[in-house]
## 1
Amino acid sequence: MAGIYIHIPYCRHKCSYCNFYSTASATYRNVIADMILTELDLRKSFLSEEINSIYFGGGTPSVLPVSDINKILKSVYNEFDVSPDVEITFEANPDDLDINYLSELKKIGINRISIGIQSFFEQDLAYLERVHKAERIPEVMNAIIQSGYDNINADLIYGIPGQTELMVEQNLNWLTEYPVNHISAYALTVEPGTALQVQIKKKIKPETDEAVLSSHFLRVSKLLTKTGFEHYEISNFAIAGKYSKHNTSYWFQEPYLGLGPSAHSYDGYSRRWNANSVQKYIDTIKQNKLREEVEILSLVQKFNEFIMLRLRTQWGIDMQEVARKFGAEWHNDLRKAVQQIQQPDKIKFKNNKLILTPLGFLYADGLASELFRD
Ligand code: SF4
């Protein structure tokens, strides 16, 4: 199984906290789909596996007309062996969507919508500098449902300064009134180089608080689990086994091809990525060339990534798989490293799998690093 990720690097406005590669300028927006088609042609031999996930992300794919999305999708079908059960996700922002656009997307084969709600509270959206208004959310959610989508993800953000636990709870209550079967709930992180980092430094905006982030995280986990969602990855919750195929394949280190500026690809041996620049991307692709950086992964890097990614999930680290993939010595070393941690409230063995508890999810990065090899 393999996936294809298409990065549409345009947004109507740059949100203050965002560190994804995207631009608020519309330069080359009318040709980006054609450039992606050229890149797809140049990279079509990268994957030989059946495609079970196609993901339009960004940036904001919903800034493009449906005709652009359609031609990219058609080309994927022409060049790859696409599974009949393929999940085709489309990321969208509430301000772009209406029933016509959504219905057209459905007609061309999009079968999963991922909507960036973030919060139902205007004060949170203002802090994040999101473009959409909270009052628009019900209209958009109803349009998604009326257009016939039954596979819907919504993104939420918690830990926003000024956001109380009651507001977090209210966000979850309002959201789960809609038939969403997947929720990605992220802690607000202040990434280097973002506008938010500067605003906090200049005291224009209040800063996030680690203790608040932790208590919001535990609250979200508890409430969604009570509502019937599985907390299957640190930031992801699904109902009725509707895990995101796109994200799950990433955590299980399956191969994927990334297209578009800044997109990453992975084939099990190497990782390669395009420049974080629309201009550089267009200049190179126009010459029928690829401009990418490549990193060949060592066995230690693969092991450490395996540990880090699997620990993020409810399935954890299968110790038999460790022995099979990395040998008996590394398997035994890992067991010894776990014994030294001795924090059963955070990390434990269950049926020969090493898993994190909900509390352990909060410390996932630190715990994973204690298990890494040098
Ligand atoms: S809409 Fe998404 S990708 Fe675009 S700036 Fe905001 S957070 Fe970043």
## 2
Amino acid sequence: MPNELPAIYPLGIVGSGQIARMLHSAAVQLGITPRLMAEDSGDSAALAAPGASFRHPDALSSFAEVCEVVTFEHERVDLGLVRYLEEAGAVIRPGSTTLRAAMDKTHQRRILLNRAFNVPPFAELRGPDDMLDFAEMFGWPMVIKSVRSGGQADRGSWVVDNERDALRVMAEQVGRDLMIEAFQPIVKELVVLVARRPGGNARCYPVAETVNADGACREIRIPAAIGSRIATEAMETARRIAGELDAVGVIAVEFFLTTDGLVVNEIAARPHNAGHHTIENAPTSQFENHVRAILDFPLGPTHALAKACVTVNVIGGIETVDPAVHLAEALAVEGAHIHLYGKRPRPGRKLGHVTALGDDMDQARELARRAEGALMNRRPA
Ligand SMILES: Nc1ncnc2c1ncn2[C@@H]1O[C@H](COP(=O)(O)OP(=O)(O)OP(=O)(O)O)[C@@H](O)[C@H]1O
Ligand SMILES: [Mg+2]
């Protein structure tokens, strides 16, 4: 007799992208059959999840009815609906309080400031006067940001050097809620992931260093090249933030290490791009620990397995190269772990990532870059 699909699923995942796809596989590996709600049958996550349902977000109520626990891969949620479902008894993890903080950057900054965490000076940007007042206090450049976190969908921050540039961005982004922030003298960008169960039991992954160019994260290195005092401070801060937000699941805290010390940049209430290395570089991946945390199972260990680990993102270029076409060449790079997300190539789109472990950072980076170069059909330099 064929297996029947369950009437009630232990886990519902809402999302279409690679995070949902990798969460789905982590759950399947544990023998849990999750239900996915994506947007389209061709989505990255839907390709890996037979029997997905579609037309998010209208269908969330009926989806929540057939799932014991629901989780989101992104921050574009209808918070009113989530609250309504919670009140009706649905279990959504992380819940609306954490999701609100992750979605709304001014709200997030206010919470962190009230709890005495170090955040960049910021203000709401409702019109030119706010910008001029802020420039008088903090000078140029400044950073304009969309208040709503974009997840991976679109760009949400712009560094502006003067009044003219600021007015141009404001005109281009008219209709969007914006905020302004003082430009930070960034030495390094760091990310700490925390997995936290209901009730507060939590585990923290080692600090990752992200290397960004043109507004996109290109490379992630673990361990971050920072002293142990900064590493401990970052991990302790991330753990405290997870507690303050009563987060359940994996949350990611992005930091700037500035010339004046650690500053919290932003929080994502989900597994994060800077944590994909944990698939190979930790006893328990961030995806598995997210599943464990939201289902209130014991968390797995989170330490790094390799002395050095590099993840390189595979990002669509101006010339349309499909990395899937060059998979064979990339797989010939022994020791590199290739992950492709099944997405159609577009400039700037994250299509996959490659992770390499090693005894030193240069060796791991060389391996990961060689495989990424093969996927993008670039000749070695
Ligand atoms: N205050 C700042 N000073 C200097 N650089 C900044 C500042 N804020 C952001 N940046 C730079 O811009 C990048 C993107 O900013 P941020 O992390 O706020 O947005 P995002 O990740 O694009 O947003 P989202 O996750 O909402 O899509 C940062 O990684 C950093 O390099
Ligand atoms: Mg960010």
